[in-house]
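Example pasted here:
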Amino acid sequence: MIRRLTKKWRVLLIVFGLAVAACIAVGLIMYALAEEQMGGKADGARLERMLVCPNFKEGKFVNALPTNMISPGQFIETGRMYLEASDRNPHKPIPTERIAAGFFAQAPVGGLRVTWLGHSAFIIELDGALILTDPVLFSRASPFSWIGSERFFPCPVAMADLPEFDAVVISHDHYDHLAMDEVRALIPKTKKFIVALGIGAHLEHWGVPPEKIVELYWWEEAVIGNGVRVLAAPARHFSGRAFRRDPTLWASVMLIGPRHSVFFSGDSGMTPEFSEIGQRFGPFDCTLIKIGAYGRTWPDIHVTPEQAIEVHRLVRGNVFIPAHWATYNLAAHSWYEPVNRLLAAASGTDINLIVPKPGQPVVPDSSPPLVRWWDFLR
């Protein structure tokens, strides 16, 4: 009996060992396939800049406020949220307005025009400068081309038809905001990549010339074409493309020209600095604020639609154009819930809300009528 049990345990241990070895092998293969996508690591002068930052501690950036992430005790609750969520993907194609080659050659008459390409990617024409934010245009929100969240709709403009940009602005290094293939394709079309501190290591790793990279810490700025200022401001989030958490900074962004200004939230939870942004740099003609990918087990790092309204008020925005929704399946809510909650929260207020289709150019001063285009897709 003892010998038979011992033999069974030996077999079980062998099987278990083989399973563990197989998992390790698969993990190593996947890591090798994705290693280039993970980018570079800060060193030299870049690392020296990071080391003197007030919120760079023990080798990583931290938020100004204590910030709760999903704890191990919340894994089951988080998994249940995803299992219970419905309509996380649209059942019909999302309508887009295709952008023709040469469209951006003619500057907007009023000096400000915003075109949403999906998620957090916007082309912003501001007082003669052309700016592209968080350019994940064709890739999955993943280090792999074959697995991970796929776009709900094709980018409304071909890479070949994109104009030359005075700046490509990157708020943080997560895969739904920074994609290696897009960065490489944009090198010949971009005068400057203006990014949160530390992200330059990724860009250099992917072949961006160092002279094209400008890295900003919170409250620092760069000046681009026609005297337009690009300022990094605090946000409450996190970063990382591999196993190491928070190696690069995250930021919200202000674009301030001679006549117009735009606030871009990037990804963030609520933080007191939004009020400071409004007091020091507001009002803004337009705010581009994230509304999706929130969840009750990560409330500190992604604002809800209702909180997005508060952010708009704090930074003293005029026109509100929502970002970070209807493009990727990333959270435990329906794809249309964020915008419906946003409209409900804005109802009866003086919020000037515009919800464009992907590819639809918006002149904020024109205040086009609200069309609930997403309602036709349910």
In short: The chain has one domain: 103-377.
